[in-house]
Design brief:
Elements (H helix, E strand, L loop, with lengths): L3 E3 L8 E4 L2 E5 L3 E12 L2 E7 L12 E4 L6 E9 L5 H7 L4 E7 L5 E10 L5 E4 L4 E3 L4 E4 L11 E8 L3 E12 L1 E11 L5 E12 L3 E12 L12 H7 L8 E2 L4 E6 L2 E12 L3 E14 L1 E7 L6 E8 L13 E8 L4 E9 L7 E8 L3 E13 L4 E12 L5 E8 L6 E6 L3 E5 L2 E8 L3 E12 L1
């Protein structure tokens, strides 16, 4: 008779799934579609598939027979996830006979047989000679595998078939445990006029399953999901929507397509997605992207002058592809090696949009703002304030500083005098563009009138 030995360490090996395709979204889920060969008989029967993700959403499963679908009716669908482990095995044997085998110091083997009374807080056995043994050491052997426990998460269907034979069953389902992010590395050239940009996608698989030879797609965009029983149905419908013609092929083998209101990046080869693995795949690369180094002072934000790089995502700049959101790390050579100079996050960025990377605060360019005068006339319901902003430049070259001033809380305001030209950005904001000569300083003054 076969026996099951329960050891103190129990190992579970994740399943290997040969998936037709895995579409990974930004927000910790994926859509898996694969095809299984199942044996079908005439009449009512149960068919099972056990190589699915351990984190599958069973309410999202969409089964479809690829042939004879009119002759096969799916009556029920079940998801069994009561996976076997040592404690569950023993719980199934409470009130039944088990055997504990152990070696004595003289190398003799001793067997303790009896009825299992409890596994709560330890193992308790009532032996055949009516002794109570608590937590006996050794290996516990069971006569057979009890019913109702699964080695792997299993999908099963009750079907009624008019035909028999081997049939192909296509499964589409949503699973958590998948995520992907884009990571960008930019290298700034010597005169801060151009950058080389490399992009990688990092895929994280903690789904409990390994997907072999999968067709990989990545969806960039903010997809709304809900926790209703048929949450994934809208995804299935969207997945079958007509995609626009492919617009771009990246250098690394990803093909970009417009997809509904999102973008899909399809890898032009198959890939293995191992469980508990982070995989990096090169996404795209571009050289000599023109950039403009910007100095910005915004007193409402902080008292520092920020440094940023501004460039445009278009073909003229050697880019011009929809870029998924991610972190951009910027490096520059100091003459001996490449050093880190700052990083920023970008959002999903369509073609032809301006991009700006804020890298940090300037060391040699500083700003100081103070109010030099104020007055208030309550009867006229007016007040005036005069400000002075001193910009200092310790560098050996002239720099241009954007001075951003915001007037929050006032619906009626007006600049009545100013030392430099400004542009009104919106109903609350103005911007001065100020040249600050090398080893010098420039004062920006303005007077603002409020009324209420």
């Amino acid at each position: 008779m076969k026996k099951i030995f329960v050891l103190f360490a129990f190992m579970f090996v994740s399943s290997f799934i040969y998936a037709a395709s895995v579409t990974i979204y930004n927000d910790n889920f994926a859509l898996v579609r694969d095809t299984k060969d199942v044996d079908v008989k005439v009449g009512k029967q149960t068919i099972e598939v056990d190589d699915v993700s351990a984190k599958i959403d069973p309410t999202s499963v969409l089964p479809k027979f690829l042939s004879d679908s009119n002759n096969i009716t799916i009556l029920e669908q079940n998801y069994d996830f009561d996976l076997v482990n040592s404690n569950k095995l023993l719980q199934k044997y409470i009130g039944k006979d088990i055997t504990v085998e152990r070696y004595l110091p003289n190398s003799q083997k001793e067997k303790i047989s009896g009825k299992l009374l409890s596994v709560q807080g330890g193992t308790i056995i009532k032996t055949n000679n009516d002794k109570i043994v608590i937590n006996p050491s050794g290996e516990i052997s069971l006569p057979k595998m009890p019913d109702g426990l699964m080695l792997k998460p299993t999908l099963s269907w009750l079907i009624n078939s008019k035909v028999a034979g081997k049939k192909k069953l296509e499964l589409t389902y949503k699973t958590t445990g998948f995520s992907w992010v884009a990571d960008y590395v930019a290298v700034l050239n010597k005169d801060d006029k151009n950058i080389d940009l490399n992009a990688w996608v990092t895929i994280n698989n903690t789904s409990g399953a390994t997907y072999k030879d999968a067709k990989l797609k990545l969806v960039a965009g903010d997809v709304n999901t809900v926790k209703e029983p048929r949450a994934a149905r809208s995804l299935m419908m969207a997945k079958n929507a007509v995609m626009e013609e492919a617009a771009y092929d990246t250098a690394a083998g990803f093909q970009e397509q417009a997809f509904f209101e999102y973008h899909i990046y399809k890898l032009q080869r198959k890939a293995d997605l191992k469980d508990n693995e982070k995989k990096q795949i090169e996404f795209t690369a571009a050289q000599n992207i023109p950039v403009e180094k910007k100095y910005t002072y915004q007193s409402s934000k902080n008292n520092k002058v920020e440094i940023s790089l501004k460039f445009k995502n278009n073909k003229a700049s050697n880019l011009g592809i929809p870029l998924p959101k991610g972190k951009v790390r910027v490096f520059k050579s100091d003459g001996d090696s490449i050093e880190f100079v700052g990083e920023d996050m970008i959002d999903h960025t369509p073609e032809n949009k301006d991009m700006r990377l804020t890298l940090g605060n300037a060391f040699d360019v500083t700003a100081e703002k103070k109010m030099t005068n104020s007055s208030r006339n309550n009867s006229a319901k007016q007040s005036e304030e005069t400000y002075e902003i001193v910009l200092k430049n310790a560098k050996d070259e002239t720099v241009k500083v954007d001075v951003i001033e915001t007037f929050y809380g006032w619906s009626n305001w007006k600049i009545v005098s100013n030392s430099h030209k400004f542009e009104k950005k919106d109903s609350n904001t103005i911007a001065f563009e100020v040249d600050v000569p090398a080893k010098s300083e420039t004062k920006v003054t303005y007077k603002v009138k409020y009324s209420w």
